[in-house]
Model the fold of this input.
Amino acid sequence: MIRKVLFSSIPILFLFNLLIVSAQSITEIELLDIEKNKIITIPTNPKIQLETKKIIKEIDNIVKKFNPIPDKGYIVKIPLSPSLRLENKWVNTLIDEVIIIIPENEKPYLLIFDDEKKPHFFTVKTEMDTLLKTFDFPL
Done:
């Protein structure tokens, strides 16, 4: 029971760490393997930045799950440089990073924090294959 509670809290601790680290200037993409609890970092590049911005523009709905953090899969944090203004019917904010949640056997979705550090989970109408292929590691 303790092990289950400990491992289920790891993604939440990762997200809290994102809030603290976001105040610093980040130029690396961080990938968390949820099941292995392992973080891999790679430098960002203009192609990744461009693909990420395209995906953000394709937000089409909010995630309607009670617990949007999966037990298996990946969480990818991508810093945006420069920051991007996100305006839609759910949020109007300036974002400096986007977090892509890739559950095992489900479609990926986005996590974005607004100016007040409130989380917003969004679905997108576009595929993320082009973005994910730009990473130097297999997902």
